[in-house]
Structure formats: C-alpha cells, structure tokens
Amino acid sequence: MKSSLISKLKSKKAVIGIVGLGYVGLPLLLRYCEMGYKVIGFDIDEAKVQALRDGQSYIEHISAQAIGAAVKQGFEPTTDFSRVAEADALILCVPTPLNKHREPDLSFVLNTTDSLLPYLRTGQVVSLESTTYPGTTDEELLPRIESRGLKVGEDAFLVFSPEREDPGNPNFTTRTIPKVCGGHTAQCLEVGLALYGQVIDQVVPVSSTRAAELTKLLENIHRAVNIGLVNEMKIVADKMNIDIHEVIRAAATKPFGFVPYYPGPGLGGHCIPIDPFYLTWKAREYGVHTRFIELAGEVNSSMPDYVIAKVASALNAAKKSINGSRVLVLGIAYKKNVDDMRESPSVVLMEKLRELGADVSYSDPHIPVFPKMREHSFNLSSVPLTASALSQYDCILLATDHEKFDYTLIKDNAKLIVDSRGRYRESASHIVKA
C-alpha cells in the first residue's frame, strides 16, 4: 500500500485534495496544479467555491490569472465532500482559533475530519497543516481515522506538516519555504516526504507528528516573545524620550547575536496572537506554567490601550477630547501590503476609539469596504486620501504602514498624526510617536 501510494505521488498520478481554500490552502493547491497534479479543492463556503470555478481570486496577492490557469488545467473546487474518496492525499488547511476563554478551538479541524470520515479509503494519506498543540494529530485525528477500520501506517497514512505561509512576502513562496513534516509512523513519514517532496524545494523530516506540531509553535512563540520584548522596550524608551526605532536600527548593525523585531499597536494575523496559547493550554496538562508566553501575551495585548492613550494625550495637547473628534485610522490589515484582517489590532483600535466617542473612519488601499467579521462590525468604506480629506480629521492614526500610502501627502495635510509604526523618522510638532 505504501509503495503504491509513494509511486503515485512521485509520478504525479495521485489526486490531491486540499480541504480549506483560504490563505494556506489556496497557494498550496496552485503549487500542486503548477506541478501537474490533478487537484480537488474542498470548502464549505459556496461563494468561495463559485468564485474559484469562475477563475476569480478572493485573496489580493493571488491573481485571478493563477486561478484561471489552475481551473483550465483541471482544478475542481467543490463543496461535495463525497468526492474525498477520489483523492489519494487529503491536506487539511482549516482555522484553529481560540474560544472566548482563550483556549484552543479545534472545532474546524474536528468537524472537517468528521466530514471526511465516511469517504476515507485504503491507500490515502491525510496531512494536517493547521497550527495546533502537540498531540492533536495522534490524539484526535488518529482514532477517528482508525474508527473507519483503517490501520494507520499500513492501510492509510497520517502526517502533520505545519503551514508556513507569509501572505504578501515577495521573497518567499510556497515552493521555496522549507516544509517540516512528521509522521505517525516511519511509513507515514515516508509517504509525507513523497507528498511534499515533489512541490517543495526542501522538506525537513522530524521524528513524530508531535515534534512537527511543537516546531510550528516554537516558531510563532519566538516571534511573540520577541515582539513583546520590543513593545515593552518601546514604552521604556518613550518614557526616556528616546526613539525606539532609531535604537533598533542602530542595534541591527551588529552582525551577530541580534535579530531586529519591531514594535507596533498590537499583534495581528492568524498565527502570532493565537498559537502560543495552544502550548500554554496544553502545558497545563503536564503541570508546566509557561510564564514567558503569558507575559508576552499580556504585553502585546496591552499595546492597543497604550496607543489609545497616546491618541488621547495628543488630542488633549491640541485642546480636544477623543469624544467628538474625527479620527482616521490608516491601515486595517494586520500587516502592511496585504488585505488580511485576521486578528488585526487596527480593528481593536477602531472599536476602542468608537467606545470613547470618536467619529471613526479608515483608509486602506487593500480593503475598500470593511468586511463582515464574526466579532467586529463597522459599516464603513475606505476613505480616499486627498489633501482636502486629510485636513478634515482631528487625528490621523497610522496603524498599518502600507507602502501605497503617500506619507508626504499625509504629513503635509494632517493636523495631527499618531504614528504607531515608526514610519516618520523626522521630528515634527504635529507627529506623535506611539
């Protein structure tokens, strides 16, 4: 069974099923299509599936041309999970958020797996790419798959290979980012290496699914902790009337022992604000208190309040209060040059300003209309940046520093700028660094 599946994967005769067609699944399926595989894409969102059938993209950095080329090559998006039986490989790319108690919410992974179960068969490999705590693959997916009468490692194969997408980063692609892969058994790992080895330049094998799961968490915790450190340093530097961005630029000239991280108004994206707490939650099972992770979380989650305090102070100096002031938030994506709003601190800033009585607007060249979100609601469209428009606001809050913004235009026409990204290096009486 193993040899036959590996042969199909290496000869590109295998059918690849991608489950979840979002920021992770979509680039991955395009790569498999590019390499000549037959790909079926599964999603429960009929609107997404129909857009893909029509050759349209709903993610800014993925072109409609790329989608159209994949469809012409035979890519089939569908909401029909009975077609799971047609696939030789099933790659799960679904969300793993936190619930309201900041605990792991595996409902997307488990519900998706349960949807696949009736159609699983011998000779398939299942790969989970969703970031999660160590043990998820063997504690949750393994018993579900074996409940079908399949022996994992013999009849079917199970691997964990965490996604490493960086939306909007032109320097790295799905092909060039090394791929970590761990199997439930040695045979599973062999199949996993064959699955990814044809489309990724470098596949990094590890000894188990748990090692692969912890690898992904370590990557994101490393970033969260270091961003927490530099956010705390920003507050200290501000009290000392020192520009933290100048300090970081100077420190980064050291050719060893220092990696620059940059402060901001909070953490955003689907990974960094969420994934560390998957390990915090699981560590309790082993009686371990993850103090670094929790402290970094406290610092990073407090940054929106720090920025709002800066806005209040700056308006106060201009003899205005937040209540009744017109505030324009620049950038509502979680990072620059993308249209991804997942966990964006900009939205938190907007809500806090609104709660304090501000008349809030936003401008974002990547997000023309504020989208429908589960936990946030604004009936707004992006404000075009003109000299006249900028002059109408009491405060411009730079929350996400997109390259498309005309920073000279903003500086020359804004009454007051609160810069939470360190974009403006020069000192000016109407620019407040936050």
Percent of residues in helices comes to 25-40%
Query: What is the end-to-end distance?
Result: 59 Å
- Average pLDDT figure: 95
The coarse silhouette is: globular
| Pattern of helices and strands | HEHEHHEEHEHEEHEHHHHEHEHEHEE
Tally of individual helices: 14
Structural Rg:
24 Å
Structure class: alpha/beta
Q: Could you say how many structural domains there are in total?
A: 2
**Strand neighbour order, sheet with most strands:** 3-2-1-4-5-6-7-8
Give the CATH superfamily of the largest domain: NAD(P)-binding Rossmann-like Domain
The CATH architecture category of the largest domain equals 3-Layer(aba) Sandwich
Blueprint (SSEs and pairs):
Layout: H1 2-10, E1 15-19, H2 25-34, E2 38-42, H3 46-53, H4 64-73, E3 76-78, E4 89-92, H5 107-116, E5 125-128, H6 136-146, E6 157-160, E7 179-183, H7 186-197, E8 203-206, H8 209-239, H9 244-251, H10 276-283, H11 291-317, E9 326-330, H12 345-355, E10 359-363, H13 387-391, E11 395-398, H14 407-413, E12 417-419, E13 431-433
Parallel strand pairs: 1-2, 1-4, 2-3, 4-5, 5-6, 7-8, 9-10, 9-11, 11-12, 12-13
Antiparallel strand pairs: 6-7
Helix pairs in contact: 1-7, 8-11, 11-12
